[in-house]
Write a structure and sequence with these properties.
Blueprint: E1 14-18, H1 22-33, E2 37-41, H2 47-53, E3 56-58, H3 61-65, E4 71-74, H4 81-86, E5 98-101, H5 107-116, E6 122-128, E7 143-150, H6 154-165, E8 170-173, H7 176-185, H8 187-199, H9 210-224, H10 227-235, H11 240-270
Parallel strand pairs: 1-2, 1-4, 2-3, 4-5, 5-6, 7-8
Antiparallel strand pairs: 6-7
The structure holds NADP nicotinamide-adenine-dinucleotide phosphate.
Length: about 270
């Protein structure tokens, strides 16, 4: 790790992104601003975008691994994680590296990373609980969850966490299991409702209430994220199926209650 001081009190690191899609690009802008040196590799060619951002892009994962990263940050889709990791020639790594993932489910990458990575690699599982829309105006007071799964080099781990601390994130250390249990009840439900509102094609009307504007915003934000993300939230969080059933049952109960109320009212007026 080089030692040039940053205004944010994080020390400059070499960070390599595996997967340079929408979320990685969003994170990378802040990392660059903080003074870190970034490398990236991805299935698609992002060399033009990367050169505009001052990031070295590698078409070949082998040369990416030779690039002497302090941290390798995995930001591929949830669904592609096993395929992406298994296609990396990890024996090319010249030194122990901190692997960090930012996937929106946590038990799944924890298990895959423990299976696939060399024993000498440290592992930090994280979930920044925000994205390009909610984090567009800065990361202050936004939640950042993490579990130190296998950390021997505490310095590099805490230096990585400082990237988010120094932006004002609320740092939440918890197990991956606890994350998935809570995220199924919160983030997954938000996405499920947003997708349902997308199916209904709701749009603003000339007489919107504030409540309805919030619903349109939820729908727009959710529909701007990939279908792979939504599928991953369901397939690889073992608590999600139950929450989807709870949502379905709740909607059914609300409908039944309204029908019953209507029937009772009609009976009263007929008497
Ligand atoms: P995403 O659709 O979940 O992932 C897109 C990324 O996955 C791209 O880098 C893409 O590479 C790569 N990818 C997809 N299929 C692949 C395959 N078969 N082989 C190799 N690479 C593949 O969209 P995202 O929003 O950028 O999310 C990236 C990660 O961040 C996800 O794990 C997500 O859960 C997590 N995350 C997202 C948010 C958010 O707000 N969007 C917030 C927190 C965490 P190419 O672009 O090169 O095709």
């Amino acid at each position: 790790m080089s030692s040039s001081a940053l205004s944010s009190s994080s020390t400059s690191m070499k960070i390599g992104f595996v997967g340079f899609g929408r979320f990685a690009q969003f994170l990378a802008k802040t990392f660059v601003r903080q003074g870190h040196t970034l490398h990236a590799t991805s299935r698609s060619d992002y060399s033009t975008l990367c050169s505009q951002l001052g990031i070295q892009f590698y078409r070949e994962v082998t040369t990416f691994l030779d690039a002497d990263n302090d941290v390798v940050l995995i930001s591929t889709s949830i669904l592609s994680l096993p395929e992406v990791l298994r296609s990396m020639p990890l024996d090319r790594l010249k030194k122990p590296v901190l692997f960090v993932d930012v996937l929106s489910v946590k038990e799944f990458p924890r298990e895959v990373l423990l299976q696939v990575l060399p024993e000498e690699s440290d592992i930090l599982c994280t979930h920044p609980m925000f994205g390009p829309v909610s984090g567009n105006d800065g990361w202050r007071d936004l939640n950042f969850m993490y579990e130190k799964v296998r950390i021997r080099d505490e310095d590099i781990c805490s230096n990585f966490l400082k990237i988010f601390e120094s932006e004002g994130c609320r740092m939440l250390e918890m197990t991956c299991e606890e994350h998935d249990r809570l995220a199924a009840k919160s983030q997954f439900i938000t996405h499920a409702i947003g997708r349902a509102l997308g199916e209904m094609e709701i749009t603003s009307t000339p007489i919107d209430t504030k409540g309805f504007q919030t619903l349109v915003q939820v729908k727009d934000t959710v529909m701007s994220s990939s279908l792979d993300l939504f599928s991953g939230l369901f397939m690889h969080n073992r608590f999600a199926r139950q929450e989807l059933e709870n949502l379905e049952n709740a909607l059914h109960k609300v409908k039944e209650m309204l029908i019953q109320e209507t029937n009772e009212e009609q009976e009263k007026t007929e008497c």
